[in-house]
Amino acid sequence: MDRIPRSLWAYEDVGRVHLSLSGTLLETLASPGFQRRVYGIIDCGSLLWYLQNTTIIRILGTGYYHPVLPLIPHADWDEQLERWHGVGQHLFARTSFPGFWPPEMGFCMELMLEEAHWRVLRAETSCNFFWGDTWLQRCHDDLNQATRFLNQAGSRLASHQPLDSRRP
């Protein structure tokens, strides 16, 4: 796995990778016991350091246990995402991640609408204090993403695809 960042180093001007790693994998890679067992095969500490390179690697949020979100109870979604976000914040020393990768591409209407709602809310409550000169562009990007999610949800509704047959 450390070949991903190493292979891109020479192409930092053009190479980009969006990478999604489950919370359980991240915790395993950060575990000192695991690192001792595999040292010589892979240097997990260096790998985690290499993944810090935001010029070539974009870490995407995901579910902690790699769940297919539409197949688990909706009440568990927030815990899955918050737990992953806590591990991501700790290991990658940042508070936000540029996107979300649903495990097994398990998207549903509710996920799209929740993502759109979150992006509109973040754009409306953002201020220059937090992001300096990038504030306006970040708000613009969030609103564009929210529009994309709402358009996807609207096209599914227009084609009469059910939201989720398990819920009323």
Description:
The protein is mainly alpha-helical and 168 residues long. It has a single domain (3-158), classed as TIM Barrel, CATH 3.20.20. It contains eight helices and two strands. The chain has helices spanning 3-8, 23-30, 32-38, 44-50, 77-92, 109-125, 128-131, 135-158, and strands spanning 17-20, 57-60. It has a two-stranded parallel ribbon. α6 (109-125) runs antiparallel to α8. The N and C termini lie far apart (43 Å). The relative contact order is 0.11.
Strand order of the largest sheet: 1-2
Please give the share of residues in helix: 40-55%
Distance between the termini: 43 Å
CATH architecture: Alpha-Beta Barrel
Q: So what's the CATH class?
A: Alpha Beta
Structural class by helix and strand composition? mainly alpha
The DSSP helix count reads 8
Count of the domains: 1
Order of helices and strands: HEHHHEHHHH
Question: Rg to the nearest angstrom?
Answer: 18 Å
State which percent range the strand residues make up. under 5%
CATH topology: TIM Barrel
Beta strands, count: 2
* pLDDT < 50 runs, ≥5 residues: 162-168
Major sheet, described briefly?
2 strands, parallel
What average pLDDT do the residues reach?
76
Shape category: globular
Task: Reconstruct the topology from this structure.
Elements: H1 3-8, E1 17-20, H2 23-30, H3 32-38, H4 44-50, E2 57-60, H5 77-92, H6 109-125, H7 128-131, H8 135-158
Parallel strand pairs: 1-2
